[in-house]
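agent> Task received from the user: take the single chain below, predict its 3D structure, and emit structure tokens. No templates, no multimer pairing.
agent> Plan: (1) validate residues, (2) run structure prediction, (3) serialize to tokens, (4) report one or two observations.
agent> Step 1 OK, no nonstandard residues flagged.
tool_call: predict_structure(input=
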Amino acid sequence: MSDLYGDLDTRAAAVAAQVVRWRQYLHEHPELSDRETENAALITTHPKSLGLDDIRTDVAGHGVVGMLRGGLPGDRVVALRADVDALPVPDLCGVPLASHVVDQTLVTGVRLHAQVGYDHLSGALAPG
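)
tool_result: status=success, residues=128
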């Protein structure tokens, strides 16, 4: 079992810097609900770079759905959901990665959903 944990740690470390950059970008460039054009484009780019060929865009507006199929037979599915819509409130956090957009903030819960989704996708598809 310790080899599994070591492998997970290695894979997580390999993508950590990029995951932090995505988090910072999403936080600095929030987009209100039904206006998430740039962030949807960002979210679409990464799965395509990893070879996911079944990516659907403009789902219910600006939604993105990527299908990751396993190599084993069966009908089990793992679904990951991530939100990136901001709230129309000023970002008063005062940290370097605060919103660059006036009166739009990607709040913690929303950012967490987006980040966990991207973390899982990066970890699931990381070379190794």
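agent> Step 4: summary for the user.
Residues 5 and 11 are 10 Å apart (CA to CA).
agent> Done.
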